[in-house]
């Protein structure tokens, strides 16, 4: 998974890292953080895709990819050069 500046991301649930830290990392990477999942959302970060939360239900209904905290962190790392 690759995230690009300008994409929209939402967060749902509890994470190992404090949510404000995840939001700050997303914003430093140029992502736009939105409070809810809409048809414009590019990815939902949720550690429990089976939680049944409103955000997860919306992502599933709209076909928005759901990734966990680890996949999100990996997507923020720069690609290796070479």
From TrEMBL:
Ranges where the BRCT domain occurs: 17-69
Pfam families noted in UniProt: BRCT (PF00533)
InterPro entries referenced in this protein's UniProt entry, alphabetically: BRCT_dom, BRCT_dom_sf
Name of this chain's protein: BRCA1 C Terminus (BRCT) protein
Organism classification: Bacteria, Bacillati, Actinomycetota, Actinomycetes, Kineosporiales
């Amino acid at each position: 998974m690759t995230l690009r500046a300008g994409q929209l991301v939402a967060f749902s649930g509890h994470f190992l890292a404090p949510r404000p830290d995840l939001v700050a990392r997303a914003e430093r990477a140029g992502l736009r953080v939105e409070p809810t999942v809409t048809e414009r959302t590019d990815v939902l970060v949720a550690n429990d895709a089976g939680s049944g939360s409103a955000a997860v239900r919306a992502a599933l209904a709209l076909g928005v990819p759901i990734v966990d905290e680890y996949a999100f962190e990996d997507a923020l790392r720069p690609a290796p050069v070479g």
